[in-house]
Amino acid sequence: MQIGQAARASGVSAKMLRYYESIGLLGRAGRTEAGYRVYSEADVKTLKFVRRARDLGLPLDRIKLLIGLWQDEDRASADVKRIATEHAAELRAKIGELTRMCEALEGMAAACHGDHRPECPILDEIAEGSSDLAAPSASAKGQRARREAPGATAHRANQGAMS
Prior knowledge:
By secondary structure, this protein is an all-alpha fold.
């Protein structure tokens, strides 16, 4: 089958198919007399494998390793498992990072009036560059406390002491 057919059958764009071929994830395609690339069913299976691995967020170097293991009938499944568990651990770490970023942004947004005034605790917090994304800086806490009702800060402090 030609490149367009292989792309449709695998769910990988023709451009990515050519790229995967150029970096060695896929073997060099045969050519017709007219110079068109020709792909086999085995190539399409490999492309589907690559697409699924990419959907799981695996980097190309690990996909290359997995293709080698997939094609090696004498492989040790422990090698495949190690790659999968390492990647899962990296994803968990990224999830933690993204969660801290979301919490930081939500905290900054909660501290913002969001009105016509130019004061912006979001910009202030970003400019201060607090290294701990999960914890707002002292100035953001102070700004939030000034905007809250007089008893709210004391109430929050009491709740913290109770936990």
